[in-house]
Amino acid sequence: MMQSLNDLLVESKIFADREVLSPHYMPKKLLFREKEINNIEKALAPSLKGERGRNLFIYGKTGTGKTSCTKYVIEEVKNIPNTKARISYVNCRIYNTRYRVLNKIVSDHLPTYAKRGYGAVDLYEKLTSWIEEDSKILVIALDEIDVVKDLDDLVYTLTRINSDIKAGGVTIMGVSNKISFKEILDPRSLSTLYETELVFPPYYATELYAIIKDRVQHGFKADIVSEDVLHLVAATAAKEGGDARLSLKILSRAGELAEERASKEVTIKDAEEAVKIAENEIVYDLIVTLPEHHKLVLYSIALLTQSGGSYKKLTDGVDTYLFSGEVYNRYKSITESLHKEAKSERWYRKYLSELEMQGLILAFESGKGIRGHTKLIKLMYPPQKTKDVLEKDIFGTDAVKEVKEEIKQ
Fold this sequence. Notes:
This protein is of the alpha/beta class. The protein folds into three domains: 166 residues, Rossmann fold; 85 residues, Helicase, Ruva Protein, domain 3, CATH 1.10.8; 119 residues, Arc Repressor Mutant, subunit A (Orthogonal Bundle). 53% of the residues lie in helices and 12% in strands.
């Protein structure tokens, strides 16, 4: 039933504060991340004392608290008096080139200069002069660093500052879902990093339960969400890789469904329906942010899971497992049909690792007895859904026709 504008403006009977359920909301205390916060603080301690610290790289799946903990520590640093550290937080999904990152940093600290439209070289020189004038330590937090298009140039430029200045320094904090992203860096960039690494583990179901219970107490009206609903949401998010963002998305959507029904509570049925909606959104969000060849490999896996190939698929009666070699052959065939150059098997193996880390596939060694030692691959989401998302959002109509013609041959 359609809601009128007046209905939408009436105070919610379900939600107390919708913002509390947002993934961008910063609670006063981040549960189950004391150790990780402390490790970030230790890494930044030299910078706060005016010394050049080691660069820090933070890894972990989506929804494990990487960004929240990074921002939490940044806010702590801002409140410390008389420190020579200056911080820039950069969302690399927005500022996704070297120039944009440099301009964002200069805008944070020298806003009038950044607005004048200078080039990258001018920004670099202004930044180095600003750091050197009173021995500042500039801490640059690069969230989703792996999506920067000219990452080599950015890393080389930022690390080079320390060689070009006589006083002060730069410390880089990189945050990424992809633990292997550094492998694509040029050796000259890689050799300048001298970094410390911190890996964020997924949340357990019990931890997710405590996190969402805390949010529910502030985000929903009293007695709206039952313990059964909380346990269902926590268990679902734990099964999907310990993703706290997913649990919050499910809760928020379940609340909306209850509100649409003019209900006075969020039911199990609301939560189950919200799980289906959230899972569809999660799959879409994961796939559309993948690099091109990761998408092509995933598309190959979806096609073979659905239709099979020249090798017999393995099945235990419930799940289907594909041979890695067959997936690679299909990937090569599809890239050629799209007039692209397929990457080597070495790169292909990296793509599989990245897809597995994102929770899109499961890959493991077969052991003896199955065509020698080979890797077996299992798609973690429905093949038709995965295939539809890729075809609709990535390939484009003409490209899909070419691919389908290639498959028929």
